[in-house]
Design goal:
rod-shaped; mainly alpha; Helix Hairpins; 2 domains; 236 residues
Amino acid sequence: MGFFDRLSQVWKGFLGLWISDLENRNPEAVYEAAIEERIKTHRELKKAVSGIVYLRNKLQAELDTKSAQLVEISAQIPVAIEEGEEEAALVLLEKKNELESSIGSIQIELEKIRVQAEEAKTGLIQFQAGIEKLKREKTEMLAKRANAEARIKINDTLNGLSTAADIKALENVRENIEKMEAEADISSEIQGTSLDAKLAKIKAKTGNAAARAQLEQLKKEMAAKKVAASAVKKTI
C-alpha cells in the first residue's frame, strides 16, 4: 500500500468520525435527510408504477375494442353465409380468427401487467407507510433524546456536578452577601471612634459639667439662705 493510499484511508477515517459526531450532535438533521431521501425515492417509484398502470389501461382499452369487434364480426358471419356471400364470409372468418388470436395474446399480456401493477401499488403503499413510520420514529426518538438530556442534567445537579457557570454565579452571590455583612460590621465598629462621635461625647460631658456647677451653686445659695434665716430668728 502506497503513501497516498494510507493517507486517503486516514482522511476517510477522520471524515467518518466527523460525520458520526455531526450525526450525534444533530440527530434531527439526520432524520430529516433520511425522510427527504425516501420521499424522493417514493416519487420515482410512483412514476414507475404510473407507467405500469398506464400500460395496463392501454391494453385493457385495446382488449375492449377488439372484443367489441369480435362480437360484431361474429354476428356478421352467419348473415354473409345466409346471403351466399362466401368471399365476404371468408374475410370475416379470417378477421375473426385474427381477433381471437390477438385477444388471447392481449389477455395473457394484460394478466401479467395486472399482477405487476398490483404488486407495484402494494409496494408503493408499503413504502409510503415506511416513510410515515420513520416520521413517527423521528418524533419519538427526538423526544427520548430530550428526555434523556434532561435526566442527565438533573442527575448531574443532584450529584453536585453543576456547571461551572452555576458554581461561579453562586460564588459571586455568596461573596457579595459576605461583603455586605462586613460593611455592616465595620460601620458598627467605627461608629464610636469617629470624630463626630468624639465631639458628641465631649459636648455631652461639657453640658453635664455645666449643669453640675449650677447645681452646686444652687445648693450654696440655699444653704446661705438657711443660715441667714436662722440668724434672724435668734436675734428676735
